[in-house]
Amino acid sequence: MYNHFVLDRAECLVELGRHEEAEAILRDVESEFLTARLRSGLARCRSLLAVGSGDGAQAVRLAQEACAVLLDRELPFELARAQLVLGRIQRRLKAKRAAHDALTEALAGFTALGAASWAGQAREEMARIGLRPRAPRELTEIEALVADLAARGMTNREIAGSVFLTPKTVEAVLSRVYRKLGIRSRAELGRMLPERD
Known about the structure:
Elements: H1 5-15, H2 19-30, H3 36-52, H4 56-68, H5 76-92, H6 96-113, H7 116-129, H8 141-151, H9 156-163, H10 167-181, H11 186-196
C-alpha cells in the first residue's frame, strides 16, 4: 500500500526532468487502492508530466481534476497544493488571470494552515505573472463566476462542485465579493449583477 509521500518523490523526479522514473512510480501507485489524496496526487503529477511533454490542455485538465478530487474532503493542504500546480501550469501557458485566481486560492489555503514556505511559493508564482493590479472593486475571474452562480440561486456546496473549490472557500470568496461590491446578501447580489452586466 502506497502513501502519498511516494508521489512527492515522483513530483520531484518530474521537476528534475527524470520523467521515465516518475512514470514508473505513477504506474505502480495506480495499481493500488487509491484514496482521494492519492488520486489527487496522481492527477497532479500527471499534469506536470503533460506540461513537460507540451500538452498544455491535458495538463490543465489533469490539474483541475487534482483539485476536483479533493472537493468536500478535509484535505485543505492537498487542495492548496493542487491549486498551486494548476496556477503554475496556467502561468506557463500564459493564462494569466486564471493562473492568478488559482494561485490566490492556493495562497489563501496555505496561509490559513500556517504553511509559510508553501505560501511563499504561491507568492513567487504570482509575482511572475506580471498582471496589472485590479481596480479595488473589480472581481477576479473566480469571484465573478462564484457571484454569478450564487445570484442564480446555487448553494455554496453546489457552487463548490462546479468550480473545483471547497464549500468553505466558496464562502470566503462570497465574503470578498460582498465586501468589494458593498453588499451584504445574496438577494442584493442577485439585484446587482444584472446591472453590472
